[in-house]
Amino acid sequence: MNKIYPVVLCGGVGSRLWPLSRSNSPKQFQQVDPTDVHSFFQATVKRHRGDLFHDPVVSVSTKYLPTVVQQLADMNINASIIAEPVSRNTGPAVLASAFHLNETDPSAVMAVLPSDHVIQGNFNELLARMLPAAMAGRIALFGIEPGYPETGYGYILDGGDHPDHPEAQEVSHFVEKPPLEKAEELIAGKNAYWASGISLFRADVIISEYEKIDPQTYRAVKTAFAKRKTQRTHQTLCGENFARANSGPTEAVIFEKTDQAVLAPTRVDWNDVGAWNAFHTINEKDQNGNVLSGDVICVETSNSYVRGSSSKLIATVGVDNLVVVDTDDALLITTRDNCQKVKSVISTLQDQGRQEVVDHTIQRTSWGQFVRMENGDAYRLNMLKLDPNAVISFDGDMEMHRLFTASEGEALFKSGSVVKRLLPGEVAELRVGESGSLRNRGDGILTILEVQYDRVSEPALAEKASSTSKELRGEGVA
After folding, report:
1. pLDDT more than 70, % of the chain
2. Interatomic CA distance for residues 210 and 119, integer angstroms
3. 92 and 167 share a domain?
4. Taking 80 as the threshold, does the pLDDT of residue 458 lie above it?
5. Domain end: 220, 249, 271, which one?
6. pLDDT tens, 309-339?
7. pTM summary value
8. Does residue 358 form part of some domain?
9. ∠ CA 39-251-170 to the nearest 5 degrees?
10. Which residues, 6 or more positions from 163, have their beta carbon under 8 angstroms from its beta carbon?
11. Which residue of 106, 260, 272, 433 shows the fewest CB atoms closer than 10 Å?
12. What is the per-residue pLDDT across 45-69, written as a single tens digit (0 to 9) for each?
């Protein structure tokens, strides 16, 4: 029996899940629940392991490449990673993965899997049942049996039994995100399914369909793949050619136009977790209908979702239908009915140039932990916590001057011909344009305070660096 290649797509920002999801650390790389070990992405990869599957293929923006590499390493999972230098929606990403698989396995069958969905139930059993249809050249689209008239999903209409594939149904037509009245009509007809974004097909089939239906994207992605750069952990597509592909989802570009699509009715608990109310829906509730996590105390509180952080206690009294989400630097309070409007907060934050829309104060990295402590008009104060034997490198930045002070542990600092040991209280610096590195030489965590200065005139920079160095060492402080 042929095995399936899981193709995991890591696009999207998940702006309605702010403040958990940020532009530099979107929801797929966050934990489903604060107590979970795995992120959405890791849970997706883990779900599709075993005898039915090859190692996964991961399609990801170069922006999130380090996160993907780190999270796969944390799970000790090998994967083929294809990095996209520019975003062109899911279609070109899927096509690039198909070119990759077709090059090494002409009979490859690929399952396209969004990385940010929650699925409860034996979905792999259904993938196995649809495998013969996919091997025969069909494009299997997995439609979720709907539980209510959702206006935020697209729908696939059942066209009746398929004459050649008893495990599949014909596709009648598609309906894209209908208004409530139309959604209620679709549900009442009992032949409509939510479009899950999950599909199964042979790599050569999707390549052929793109060549017929969207030849411009076919040529652009084929050339971008041919000119790719191969690194130790990943392959990077040629950005100049990839940018010429039409930006669009596979569903609209190919699936709605091909005559090879079949419907795979799917009866599992599925949620794309597009807004905070979904977390209340998918999680187990207490006797008052609440879903609580973190350090939380609720009094006379019902039907609410409260997600605490490790930094503070959250207490609610006499509220109903509430959503409270606390992170290291932002707190969201809304009602479950208004969760879809959280995107409007993002627009306001962007207009104000706020950092809270970009990333978290505390970020996990490949070398340890980064903590953003304070920002000024021309400086930034950060804390770097390096794991044992970890190394962090700094490229020559033409706009930034850096000062490092060891606070805990022992560091080895290198910059050009300079090699020095840093013990607590000792200082090193990287001037504008200089590159260097810090290595943790100890068995414990190395803690470094970093001050970043924006580029200024050389005399002012030297004076400021000297003054700051003394302050960090405790000299000249009353």
Report:
1. 95
2. 29
3. yes
4. no
5. 271
6. 877 899 999 999 999 999 988 999 999 999 9
7. 0.82
8. no
9. 110
10. none
11. 106
12. 999 999 999 999 999 999 999 899 9
Pull the structure tokens for residue 372. 């953003």
Does one domain contain both 323 and 408? Answer: no
> Looking up tokens 């969004």, which residue turns up?
114
